[in-house]
């Protein structure tokens, strides 16, 4: 049995917490949404969806960043701390880990974006790289719907080593979903980031579903161009993208050139023909007037590009368009992408 602290019990954190508790681990949750915490405390953490139903009893603590910690939360000494908050709450989540973690506590983040270096700067070598490929949504206080049957995790040491710790964490996450240990987790992190750059914001500002984005020739061309910009920023850091096995997408081939690229593009279009109307989490955020994670996704690519003296004009414009949608200054519609589709003609 492992003592685990999950920070944020949204779709990802809630799924992880419930399934780890169901497997017999000692799970505690730090939750900023008081109504969610109250429901979990009263009725358990309930999962429904494609993998069946369960109700897990977990310890849950109200957590209000900037305020004094609940004494029970402050007294925890977890063996593993898992960050599963929105990206905007990374800094207070790191502060919470620093307050409760012991020197042997292992730390990983299942958030969108790449936060490992930020965590490592604050918390040291305890931080492990992790890529999340499970999905779902919060149905209401205390209730999570699991939307993917075939997802999993990829984890790895940031220095590429492979020892007892990463094997132990892999076995732990196997209780949630199949987990692969990678010898180059930075490649996996940048591959997932690149895919998110391609999918999340373009659906959000256009109102298109994922299938519509891929089956329209113009928006597909734009999607690939946004991905190629991100791939170049990764390459400038010595990072080669890896296939996205859980999506069935060979990303390096898809963003490459020649006959292999055309085959990968045709394969991807066929995958997404079956996903007409399927939205993204960023689309849902825009629709409900919530802040998005655009700054941690395309904004991360732009920030690294600026630091390296590279150009990333498509990703930069995508960030601007999503912020406009957040403010309500632009309604999601396909015409929003017209300017970018034209600009993408020059990106190969």
What's the SSE blueprint?
Layout: E1 3-7, H1 11-22, E2 26-31, H2 34-43, E3 45-49, E4 54-56, E5 59-62, H3 71-74, E6 80-83, H4 90-100, E7 106-109, H5 116-123, E8 127-132, E9 136-140, E10 143-146, E11 153-156, H6 164-174, E12 179-181, H7 185-206, H8 210-215, H9 217-236, H10 251-254, H11 258-273, H12 281-287, H13 298-308, H14 313-327, H15 338-344
Parallel strand pairs: 1-2, 1-6, 2-5, 3-10, 6-7, 7-8, 11-12
Antiparallel strand pairs: 3-4, 8-11, 9-10
Helix pairs in contact: 7-9, 7-12, 7-14, 9-13, 9-15, 13-14
Please give a handful of descriptors for the protein shown.
about 350 residues; 8-stranded mixed sheet; N-(1-d-carboxylethyl)-l-norvaline Dehydrogenase, domain 2; about 45% helix; 4-stranded mixed sheet; 15 helices; globular; alpha/beta; Rossmann fold; 2 domains
Please describe what this structure looks like:
There is one protein chain. With 348 residues, the chain is of the alpha/beta class. It folds into two domains: 3-183, NAD(P)-binding Rossmann-like Domain (Rossmann fold, 3-Layer(aba) Sandwich), CATH 3.40.50.720; 187-344, N-(1-d-carboxylethyl)-l-norvaline Dehydrogenase, domain 2, CATH 1.10.1040.10. The longest helix has 22 residues, at 185-206. The strands form two sheets. An eight-stranded mixed sheet has the order 5-2-1-6-7-8-11-12, with helices on both faces. It has a four-stranded mixed sheet with strand order 4-3-10-9. 47% of the residues lie in helices and 15% in strands. Strand 6 (80-83), helix 4 (90-100) and strand 7 form a beta-alpha-beta unit.
